[in-house]
Amino acid sequence: MMSRRSAKIGTQKELTIVDVFSGAGGLSTGFAKAVGRRGEKYKILFAVDHDLHAMQTFRANHFPEVPLGTEDPRACCEDVKEINADRILAAIRPHRRVDVLIGGPSCQGVSPAGLRNPSESATRCFWPLFASLKNSGQSGL
Predict the structure, then answer these.
(1) Total number of domains in the chain
(2) Domain CATH code at residue 25
(3) Which pTM value belongs to this model?
């Protein structure tokens, strides 16, 4: 039996993606090249990372139509803690929803190779952003 959510996703041709802690965009590239079980494709709409060189690479690969010297609200080079659902939704217009939230947050707060400090800021800021998007009516999350 197919769930209501599965049926809804099954009819979509394209699922929208927001990538936080995107780095140079390797995870986004994987999704952009993937095809879902029901033939759906993935479209990267927004990314954020604090590393300038990583974001330049991300933009060259995912938003090549925008010259690197110009600002693009879809590819933010800043601290993830400065991003909220309203800002993401404004940047992805005319799209109205985020279907998939992906990201590669720093694992130093939980990794055996790191400090194992779960209160480390990069470890904690993913969940408030997720909650912000979900509370903004993004029912697909």
Answers:
(1) 1
(2) 3.40.50.150
(3) 0.76
Buried-state track 80-116, b at ≥16 Cβ within 10 A, e below 16: beebebeebbebbeeeebbbbbbbebbeebeeeeeee
pLDDT in tens, the chain (141 residues): 334 454 455 455 899 999 999 999 999 999 999 998 889 999 999 999 999 999 999 999 999 998 878 889 999 999 888 888 899 999 999 998 899 989 887 766 666 776 666 666 665 666 666 677 777 766 555
Within-domain flag for 121: yes
| Active site positions, annotated | 107
- 27 CA to centre of own chain: 9
> What is the DSSP-derived secondary structure letter of residue 97?
-
> Cβ distance 2 to 11 under 8 Å?
no
